[in-house]
Design brief:
Elements lengths: L2 E5 L11 E8 L2 H14 L3 E3 L6 E3 L2 E9 L4 E7 L2 E7 L4 H10 L24 E2 L2 E2 L4 E8 L5 E5 L20 E11 L21 H15 L7 E2 L8 E2 L1 H10 L5 E3 L5 E3 L1 H7 L6 E2 L2 E3 L7 E3 L5 H19 L8 E3 L5
Parallel strand pairs: 2-5, 3-5, 4-20
Antiparallel strand pairs: 1-2, 6-7, 7-12, 8-9, 10-11, 10-12, 13-19, 14-16, 15-16, 17-18, 18-19
The structure holds flavin-adenine dinucleotide (FAD).
Length: 338
């Protein structure tokens, strides 16, 4: 049932105040299609919500906010130790990681403790600790928002890149993902060459050991959104031309930099912000996390406007000091007022 004037302040991990004009959580294709039809007929703007961990919500979300809650989970053995996992978009991502690890199925254990729902994982090709969704994704089932028609995308069609996919470009805000199919394996294949993961684990770790180790490292480094409002990394790591990277390195020899295959150089946004002396900054209700300069936090009682003003200050400072433009990672949704 579509509800009216719904409070979303607990449905986004930044904890920003927001009300949706209309809201529908649904685990049924027919109901979803019916809602899409109504929205198109009545000209309601449509927004798809997952767990709200990669969003900046402004106070008013007009139209219809749709939250897929498909929670089906099925395993299909396909030979040679490979298993296809059919997972509904509404499942909690970390719960899925734990469920696979408990069955000693390998593939997504390094993606532990990433907040949010399964259906959002392809949007920015979630990644951590040397693994990204694209490594295991087989198919995406979705409905087009404009007419409710179903489509199945294979990995190629998703156009995955670093924290990127076709769902952030040609299909941005044009589809609702209902289910993913992941290819995982019963064969142990730990990927531990990232950070100090290997040092925290026995020689032959189980998948659950890896989940526990990754979760422990993440808890040490990142604020828990249930305790302190945040949306994870607030800025993307910027990519600059090789010449600009060389010029910056001439002045800042210790600047972290990662040359890319296309000739560009990826810089660490957190390091750039930290160098501007902004780590730990607090401005009224919002601030920059004291251990992680890439994470903007909401201490409570603030608004999207305050957070965006702080983000702009960060962008301006980094631009002035390094000539590098930072881009926001979480998606901005809604309006300032009804
Ligand atoms: C503490 C913290 C740590 C994080 N760490 C990482 C990390 O290590 N790696 C990483 O990649 N990300 C990380 N993130 C970001 C975030 O968890 C991921 O982007 C996650 O996939 C977002 O899921 P969500 O369900 O919360 O999506 P939402 O924030 O609800 O939505 C994000 C986008 O996806 C769209 N969307 C959501 N569900 C669907 C659907 N079913 N169909 C179509 N579109 C949909 C929305 O419209 C929106 O554009 C972190 C966030 C936090 C708060």
């Amino acid at each position: 049932m579509i509800r009216q004037d719904v409070d979303l302040s607990r449905a986004n991990t930044l904890g920003l105040p927001c009300r949706a004009e209309r809201f529908l959580a649904t685990d049924d294709i027919a109901t979803t299609r019916d809602a899409l039809r109504q929205a198109v007929k009545r000209d309601w703007p449509l927004t798809v919500l997952g767990g709200g961990s990669n969003l900046v919500l402004q106070p008013w979300l007009p139209g219809l906010a749709l939250q897929p809650s498909f929670a089906d989970l099925r395993f299909e053995e396909v030979g040679e130790g490979d298993v296809l996992v059919h997972a509904g978009a509404g499942l909690n991502w970390h719960a899925l990681v734990e469920a696979l690890a408990a069955k000693e199925l390998w593939g997504i254990e390094n993606l532990s403790l990433i907040p949010g729902h399964v259906g959002a994982a392809p949007i920015q090709n979630i990644g951590a600790y040397g693994v990204e969704l694209a490594d295991v994704l087989e198919r995406v089932y979705l409905l087009h928002l404009e007419d409710g028609r179903e489509a199945v995308f294979d990995r190629e069609e998703c156009g995955f890149g670093y924290r990127d996919s076709v769902f952030k470009h040609a299909l941005e805000n044009r589809v609702v993902i209902t289910r993913l199919v992941l290819r995982v394996s019963t064969r142990a294949q730990p990927r531990l060459d990232y950070g100090d993961l290997a040092a925290r684990l026995p020689a032959k770790p189980s998948a659950s050991d890896v989940v526990a180790a990754v979760s422990a490292v993440r808890r040490e480094k990142l604020p828990d959104p249930t305790v302190l409002g945040n949306a994870g990394s607030f800025f993307k790591n910027p990519v600059v031309a090789n010449e600009q990277a060389k010029a910056l390195l001439a002045k800042h020899a210790d600047m972290p930099h990662f040359p890319l295959a296309d000739g560009g150089v990826k810089l660490a946004a957190g390091w750039l912000i930290d160098q501007c002396g902004l780590k730990g900054l607090r401005e009224r209700h919002v601030g920059i996390h004291e251990r992680q300069a890439l994470v903007l936090v909401h201490h409570g009682g603030g608004s999207a406007g305050e957070l965006l003003a702080l983000a702009q200050r960060v962008v301006d400072k980094v631009q002035a000091r390094f000539g590098v433009t930072l881009e926001r990672e979480p998606r901005l949704m809604g309006r300032k007022a009804r």
